[in-house]
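chain below, 390 aa
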Amino acid sequence: MREKKAVSAETFICIIAVILLFTYIGSVMGVSQMFDTIMNTAHGLLLDTVFFIMAISVITGAFSSLLAEFGVIALLNKLISPLMRWLYGLPGAASLGIVTTFVSDNPAILTLTKNKKFINYFKEYQIPALCNLGTAFGMGLILITFMIGQGGKGIVSATVCGFLGAVTGSIISVRLMLHQTSRYYHVDREELKKDRSVKGKTQDEPRQIYGKGIERVFNALLEGGQSGVTMGLGIIPGVLVICTLVMLLTFGPGTDASGAAAYTGAAYEGVALLPKLGQLIAPVTRFLFGFQDPSNIAFPITSMGATGAAMALVPAMLKSGAAGFNEVAVFTAIGMCWSGYLSTHVSMMDALDKRVFIKAAIFSHTIGGLCAGVAAHYLYVLFGLIVNLL
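prediction:
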């Protein structure tokens, strides 16, 4: 650890940055409304998001602990290891992380990492990549169901293209992360080659069994549920601090009693700075994602902070004609792959006790999400060409 002077140049840079940021936000929203929104957003996130995630974590923790107790994870590790190693460079047990986050949300994978029977399948350099893997599939079932529910002929095929795009992005994100973690832990090439080999020996751990029958069931459920509570409490600082800031910069004004746009100090209001910046790169997004309307960039940008909030933008875009099936494919891919990673990655890496990899995780996942959108767009274009030929 290196020492720094108590007061240095970075002290003044920090002060200036904080003053500029909150002066800008306050000038747009009003100082009183800004502080009211910050407090109300943090309170809303605690009640509506953190406790919801904690509830999910308790259930998934109990379920995963039960699977581990009776050897289901060991079975998955043996059966799916060749595919998981080929795609992600991870043991087959990682597939359980995909399933749990797909049916719930990103932090669900953290509950698994607190289970020693699960984490024993992974080497030290592979553990941080679980954050990227879990995030890439977070809220997948909810998002896909939502998109299909928008109706219209061709919506299912667009959503499938989006799902395949998200899988592509997840592979890129995890592989990039493993590249950086393996360098940090000085893993040699031979070991990496062995870990990624489809024919490699599947790592298995003997299971220690305590109790009999129903006693084992209840012990597993309660121990797994307790790990979910611990994880839920651990993510509170990251979700409240990071997500509140992201939402302030992402969302726009609320509405007053007459229905007009206004800043009322309510939760989830903001200055909509990120979508405005997105307008500047509209030509690039048209080439990469096939976006025909500049407003489409609002979905990917909002997905960085909260995919659930981004989903709320879709019906209006489809109704106005600003978005079509190509956009649905791209939205599905990016929304699923990113799934609010800016507001969860910090707390997730903190819960994994891998803070040193926060920047690497965010960088890898940013690239993965962009690749997911590009893959979804061109998969949908290819699908359209095939349909026309037939």
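The mean pLDDT is 84. The CA atoms of residues 41 and 267 lie 4 Å apart.
thats it, cya
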